[in-house]
Specification:
By secondary structure, the chain is mainly alpha-helical. It has 5 helices and no strands. Helix 1 packs antiparallel against helix 2.
Length: 138
Amino acid sequence: MNLRRIALFLICAGITFVSYYSITFFLLNFVKVNLNISISIAYLISVSFHYIFNKQITFADYKATGFESLVKYVGLSFASYFFQIIVVNFSIGYFKVSLIFAMILGVLISAVFTFLIMNIWVFQDRDLFRIFKKRKLI
């Protein structure tokens, strides 16, 4: 695994994390926007930045087209979102940890999951269905 790529991904994730919470805080406290709308706006801005940074910098040498990688990224974002919900709920329910700790754990585990999937699929010129068909799995 390329250490430069991991470092860039972590930098991007850190910027995304800070921007998400900063935008949410700003919209809630200074613009007085509804909580759900604030979260949605912050999420869309942060995820857009995350995609563009990773497409243009972290995985710039990969060959996937913009539209192809965007579709894959959107799918990965939904999977990552639901994965975080599962981790947070499991952490609180099973390990009885605080919400903040569960959320941090969810972000960390999800970041590893996201990096691996981006590295092997999202920004690669690969069609998983084509791979499965060649191996006669579907």
